[in-house]
Structure formats: C-alpha cells, structure tokens
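Q: Structure tokens for this one, please.
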Amino acid sequence: MKNLIIPKNYTSILDVNESEKAIKLVKETFEQNLAAELKLRRITAPLFVLKGTGINDDLNGVEHKVSFPIKDLNRAEAEVVNSLAKWKRMALAEHNIRQGYGIYTDMNAIRPDEVLDNIHSLYVDQWDWERVMKEEERNMVFLKYIVEKIYEVLKRTEYVVCEHYPPISPQLPDRIHFIQSEELLKQYPGLTSKQREFEVAKKYGAVFLIGIGGALSNGERHDGRAPDYDDWITRTSAEYRGLNGDIIVWNDILKDSFELSSMGIRVNKQSLIEQLDTANCQERKSYFFHQLLLNDKLPQSIGGGIGQSRLCMYYLRKAHIGEIQSSIWSEEMREQCSKHDIHLI
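A: Here is the predicted structure, written as tokens:
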C-alpha cells in the first residue's frame, strides 16, 4: 500500500496490555503538566455545534464536515466539530478567564476526508487549549516563550515514560529549533513543503515551523490554514509574516517528520479582516463568532491543539496510530500491518 510505511524489522516495545497502561500514563502526565505550565483549567467541550454560526473550524477550507439534522430544533443542521479554536476563544470570555490564564479540553472529531496512513485516522483526538494574552504580546518573543513552555512539558513527559519503561530511551533534543517557513523555503527551494519538513526535522530533532497559511515568496502556502483563527498575515519582520506554527519532531520509527501540534497567536480585528479578504471569505464577517470578535467581545488569545494519539504513538515508539486508538481501516491495511507485527486495535 502506497500510504503505509512498514518500518524495517519493527517490533512493538510494549505488548497490547502494557500499551494500554502506557497510554494512560502518557495522557495523565502530559495533561497535568501542560495545565500547570500554562496555567490552564479543564472545561467541558462540545462534540458538535450548529451549522452557519462560524464557530466550527474550517481547517484548510475543503474538508467535509460530518453533519446531521436535529429533530427537536425544526431539523436545524448540526456539525461535528473539526477543532475548537474559535469555540475556545468564546469560552474564555464566557468563563471570565483573566490574562495569563487559560483553558484546555478534550477535543474529539471525525474527519472523513483523511487519507488513511500510519499517522492519519478518521478519528481525531487532541488537547485543545487557549490562553488569554495582552494585545502587546502579539509578537514573536511571546510566541516562542509559549512554545518553549510546551516543549518543556514534552520533555518532562518523555522522561516519565522512559523511567516507567526502560526499553524506551529518550529522543527529544534539549532545545527546540525555531525556523520560518520562508527561511526553510530558501534553504530547500527545490523541495515540496513536506520534503522541507523532513529535512529540517531530521537535522534538528524538534522544530517549531513559523508562519503557516500565507503565501510564501514562491506564491505557494507552506500548508493551509483557515483565515479566522491563527494569525498568519501579520508582518513580523521585513521578510516574514505570521504568528503561528507547528511543532514538528523527527520520528525515528517511521524515519519521517512528525507533527505534534498546530498553534498560534489568534487573529485580532485587523488581521481577521485582512485574512478574510485575502482568502475571499468576506461573507464570514457576518457570522456569529466573527461579529463577536469584530465588536470587541472576545479576548486576545493564543492557543492550539496537541494530538493525543500522535503523542502516545511517538513516546511509545509505535509504527501506526491504529496501535493507539480504535478506528476503521481497510482490510488490506489490516492484513499488511498484521504481517509485520503492527497490531491495530
């Protein structure tokens, strides 16, 4: 199968029963440490929202949303959330969260358009977090400060896992490397964006790739981002734009780059209008969420999502996300995985 990577001589370090215990350890350790490091408290999040409010996230703008009519609301349409980036910002206001503090929640989504492979599933589970910040903190220094805090949590969790399971050895480097997507393009002009990620992750082990969503000097975007949550248009220097990015590590099992988190400083009124205009999505200005932001009803915030199954897969040195979570896979993929000691739940 062209979408399936079979690592050479792969054997899972932990068996099925040990893996279930280890998954619990990873999730509890990371969640507690993330909450403490960023001063977040847990809140309950929705699985679905009403269509047409602008609350659901559009990701790259092309993904199909799982939807259904609600009998008791005159067949009003509901959509399973893609993520909670905009909903979380509304929750900050509703819960009166003060500056320097925030919230996190478990986000579960269904993405039927995913191309299924070692790291992509129909089922998405992540920690979505959001933190109130000052308008004057809308800069690269603050963004990097938050990224480094998250990276310390990643390092700390890896240490706990390795202490509990000695056959697993630490792999994360001491520091995370910061690089602009435009800078990466200049270093590897002949490569695709994913190939550039491969090279930089292999070189540094852990990177935060800055500025994703806006057009680069070659006229292309490094990757897609919706125009109404992360700020990818604000100029940060003469050469660079964007106050968002991805945390990417080197996965030594798959021998490939491995995205763990997408995050960023959120749009303010000015950057929201600029990005909606750039993306030809001006009609969204009338949506419920967008009106709240344009009328100063929402706090300035920074936030992101951190993949739960991805994180467990990385720490436990698994070859397939289906070794962590229960989902649907083709019979061909199941057969190929079974032949190579990859146990899909």
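A few notes: The CA atoms of residues 285 and 291 lie 6 Å apart. The longest strand covers residues 123-132.
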